[in-house]
Each structure stands twice: as structure tokens, then as C-alpha cells.
Known about the structure:
With 290 residues, the protein is an alpha+beta fold. It has two domains: 17-176, Jelly Rolls (Sandwich); 182-285, Arc Repressor Mutant, subunit A (Orthogonal Bundle), CATH 1.10.10.60. The protein contains 14 helices and eight strands. Helix 11 packs across helix 13. The longest helix has 20 residues, at 126-145.
Amino acid sequence: xxxxxxxxxxxxxxxxxxxxxxxxxxxxxxxxxxxxxxxxxxxxxxxxxxxxxxxxxxxxxxxxxxxxxxxxxxxxxxxxxxxxxxxxxxxxxxxxxxxxxxxxxxxxxxxxxxxxxxxxxxxxxxxxxxxxxxxxxxxxxxxxxxxxxxxxxxxxxxxxxxxxxxxxxxxxxxxxxxxxxxxxxxxxxxxxxxxxxxxxxxxxxxxxxxxxxxxxxxxxxxxxxxxxxxxxxxxxxxxxxxxxxxxxxxxxxxxxxxxxxxxxxxxxxxxxxxxxxxxxxxxxxxxxxx
Length: 290
């Protein structure tokens, strides 16, 4: 494994919920800049007041008051809160995102995080923001001064917090829940995250999910707006772009790492999906992790 690959390794799973204030993050860095990194937890960043910048998978966002961002597991990101920024960075472990006694709540929660990650920079209504602030303060207190019952209390407060966010997204949430095929899409996305380096064809995922490739394409397009094949290609190219920008690996090394035996094939694949040559993209965006 190259040193650049080591630098990009994800953190271990099954950590408890973590909450930090933006002021704490700013003070920890002592004026230094955070390097791009990724986690295996889902993170919600809530800017209560002030400004800052956030880069997620090479896209930069200027943050303002009462805006909320969601960072999915594995997304390469870099946060720079302003000195006067107020808010929270909440890290949700998998057991809080994907555990519930109610199957519909599971689907609902999955769709909520999906909507958050596909709609960066959601502005919260002032009245909802005030109530959310109180919930997060209680969560913060439980995570820092809790007892043996804190895990269950945290779970309850987390559900309430997510419900407040869902209220802001009510129309989009109802639209995304109108099909029972949401569970199939969720399973596809989970398989894609685990297998995109080796499985490049829709039939690979369809076989694992016991459906036909055409059916999987239709369902995924109905729920997300894009076919399963589109998501597969974009996921592979996204990882190639991450490596191109934040590692010293050559195109040949990146192609091999992503499961392409022929570098020329990878080059054509990248251009067909992204619309630009790999070499040109790397020259324009290269920024290695030190």
C-alpha cells in the first residue's frame, strides 16, 4: 500500500456518537488548516451563526447561518469554520443511522440522509433552528457527562433531531417515500460502496440483489433520477478524482487500484463519464496530502 493510500484510510467503525462545537474545532487547530480526510461515520454539520467553508469531494461550499450539511461515510472533505462561527459537528455511527425497531423508520431515516447528501447547504427555518439548538445542547451534554443510560437517551434525542430536519424537507421526504422500492435502492447503494472497485456492471449488483439488471436500472432511476449504471460509473470516477487530486499515484496506478487492467480503457472510461481527460483533470486540481 502506498503512503498516499495509507493517508486516505478510513477510521474504525463502531465509535459512539460525537459532538463538537465549531469553536472547539477552531481552537483545536490553533489557526492551522485541516487536511482533506474521510470517516466511516455519517456527519451532520450545522452552522448556527457565522460563516465558514466546506469542501466535499472537490466541491466547495460557502457556509452561512442556520445552514445544514451532511457528509456521507467515505466522502473526502475539509472543514474550515470561521473564527466567530457557532454550531456543531455531529458524527453519527452506523448503529444510530441504521438501527430502529420500526422498518419504516429505517427507510425514512435512510431517505433523510440521502436527501441531505444530495442537497448540500439546506437552510433551516428560524423557528425550527431554535428548537433544534435545544435538542443538540442536550445531546452534547449527554455525550460529555452521561451515565450508563446515555446510549438510549442519545438514541431518542437523535431521532428527535432528525425529525426536525425532516420537517424542513417534508415535501421531498414524502416524494422519496412513495415507493416501496426504496429498500432495493438502499441495498444497491450499500453494495456499490463495498464493491465499486471490482463490480463495474449493473448485472453484478442485480444478481446479488436477486433482480434483473433492467429492473434494477428502472427502480434506481425512479427513486434517484439516474440509472444504476450511472451511479456505478460516477462512483468509480469519483474515487479516481480523489486519488488524482490527493495522492501522488500515476494514472496507471489509479487505474489498477480501481480494477482496470488496461490503462487506455480506464482513460476512455474517465473521459466518457467526466467529459475531460484524466491527465488534464489532474494538472488542474492536483493538491497532494502532505
